[in-house]
Write a structure and sequence with these properties.
About 80% of the residues lie in helices and about 0% in strands. The chain has about 90 residues and is mainly α. Helix 1 packs antiparallel against helix 2. The longest helix has about 35 residues. The chain has a domain of about 45 residues.
Length: about 90
C-alpha cells in the first residue's frame, strides 16, 4: 500500500486505466473470436462484420493496448481466412 499522497493517487489512476484497457481488449478479443467462429461455420455474413472487427483491433493498437505489429498480424490473418471463404 502506498504511503505518499501522490502514490495513492497514482494507484487510483492505474486501477481506472487498467479497467478501461481490459474492457477494450475484451471487446476486441470477443469480436475476433466471433468472426473466427463464423469463418469456421462458413457463414457468409462474416464479411459485413469485418469492418467493425478491424476498427476494434485498430482502436486497441492506437490506445497502446496491443502493439501495432500484433494488430497488423491479427488483421492479416483474419482477412486471409475471410477471403478464403469464397
Amino acid at each position: 500500500m502506498p504511503n505518499k499522497k501522490s502514490a495513492k493517487k497514482e494507484l487510483r489512476k492505474s486501477v481506472k486505466r487498467e479497467a478501461a484497457n481490459s474492457q477494450v481488449k475484451k471487446t476486441m478479443k470477443e469480436a475476433v473470436k466471433k468472426s473466427l467462429k463464423k469463418v469456421q461455420s462458413s457463414d457468409k455474413s462474416v464479411k459485413e462484420d469485418f469492418n467493425t472487427v478491424m476498427k476494434k483491433i485498430d482502436k486497441a493498437a492506437k490506445k497502446g493496448i496491443i502493439k501495432k505489429n500484433t494488430a497488423a498480424r491479427k488483421k492479416s490473418r483474419l482477412a486471409k481466412k475471410i477471403n478464403a471463404l469464397k
